[in-house]
Amino acid sequence: MSSSMGRILLTGGAGFIGSHLAEALLRRKTTLAIIDDLNQFYSPERKRSNLEEIRRVGEFEFFQADIRQFAALHSIFSLPTSFQPVLQSCWKGFFGLDLSRQLS
């Protein structure tokens, strides 16, 4: 991927996989925007630390938002600069959740 692709939007960029992907993209000189809701799946402090590590590699724009919320996405996609492509690395984990209620 090169900067000629345009501005890339990475969802879940503060997480483990997303933060490593973000660093790789910045090393390739891409223009990057990250969206993450910094949820409680694991420590939001750890996610903020991941964002600091990414910032050491390069500059990016950050949006704290939940991609399941239309209004938040609408405001991001209404910005004058478009995103191409959009990469999804976010995942709502199921470890430790009681799925018996959802499955019954």
Taken from the alpha-carbon principal axes, the silhouette is globular
Calculate the mean pLDDT score and round it: 83
Q: What is the CATH architecture assignment?
A: 3-Layer(aba) Sandwich
Task: Report the helical percentage.
Answer: 25-40%
Quick one: CATH superfamily?
NAD(P)-binding Rossmann-like Domain
Number of strands: 4
Radius of gyration: 15 Å
Total of DSSP H or I helical runs spanning 4+ residues:
4
Number of domains: 1
* CATH top level label: Alpha Beta
- The N- to C-terminal Cα distance equals 44 Å
- CATH fold naming: Rossmann fold
- Profile the largest sheet: 4 strands, parallel
Multimeric status of the protein: single chain
H and E order: EHEHEHEH
* Beta-strand content: 15-25%
Give a verbal description of the structure.
- The chain has a 4-stranded parallel sheet with strand order 3-2-1-4, covered by helices on one side.
- The chain has helices at residues 16-27, 44-57, 70-77, 100-103; strands at residues 7-11, 31-36, 61-64, 86-88.
- The chain is α/β, with parallel strands linked by helices and 104 residues long.
- The chain has one domain (3-103): Rossmann fold (3-Layer(aba) Sandwich), CATH 3.40.50.
